């Protein structure tokens, strides 16, 4: 549906948008002399994590290295990245992972929010376990573009201190992550999320008269995994739909729901859209089109970190919903140019005020983007220290 076609008020339109700029690099990357395993959250249905994997693999290729993705879905990774991969999702995948790690020349840990236990107690052991295997095999490693959230469990803090030592370099994506990692006894260099400077991002073709909305389930204390969290509270759904409706109405815009993780967000977006009076689209893009799906909107309301980055890259005013420390961390890093709202009980009045502030600060976004892009170069420097012959 193009921006000049009418949307049906108070109803959900399920048609996918027909075209956004293709932001994807060619799906076959040249092979370098140094093979590097990339240990992130790769192969998931979360488009933000897939964008990070694309950006990190491209940086490695630019340095003459041959990336090998550690993935939970080799077929998805082959189609998206065009690089070799090894599956590591369950315990019985570990022997094959060990064999693969013996054959590489180094390990990249990251990027993204791997250092946290907000999403469940299994998150840290899963991600740090991969790095620990690489260290046991005496593989050099670097951490790149890491987000560090809350590590509330003592066992998790001990694991970070034990495993994240001896790095060639560690970079983090924001000052708050750097502070939290320092409190855990690990030094790092301040960089930015790898996606913010990825040259696969293209400009949008005009601006659509919609507000891009990306809502996800909030993290629930005590949950083991997000997928096993209890059903959403009806009061939360009512408040969130009222809030989205109020912000859209204040701007005179229709609503484009953009799912960064269709399996988690799609039905949630559908239920929210059925509750609001604004004109609605439901969009489930892929990694090629998601940044443009957000960036072509006139404004953004997001619980997704890379929804905020898409807004920043394209200079769109945005309100961030602080379901996780990383959203408030990004808002602080942007000096409040993208205000953060608490997720607990969404408030329509506060959200409208926050969007008004975001619109008034939109002219500040290009300067913030330039600053983060310059800072992001530290990721490439860290990777170069890992793969350069002088460091081996």
UniProtKB/TrEMBL annotation:
Domain Polysaccharide pyruvyl transferase: 46-324
Feature: compositional bias, Basic and acidic residues: 1-14
Matches recorded under InterPro entries: Polysacch_pyruvyl_Trfase
Stretch list, region Disordered: 1-25
Pfam families on file: PS_pyruv_trans (PF04230)
PANTHER family cross-referenced by the UniProt entry: COLANIC ACID BIOSYNTHESIS PROTEIN WCAK
Name the record gives this protein: Polysaccharide pyruvyl transferase domain-containing protein
Natural source organism: Candidatus Neomicrothrix parvicella RN1
Taxonomic placement: Bacteria, Bacillati, Actinomycetota, Acidimicrobiia, Acidimicrobiales
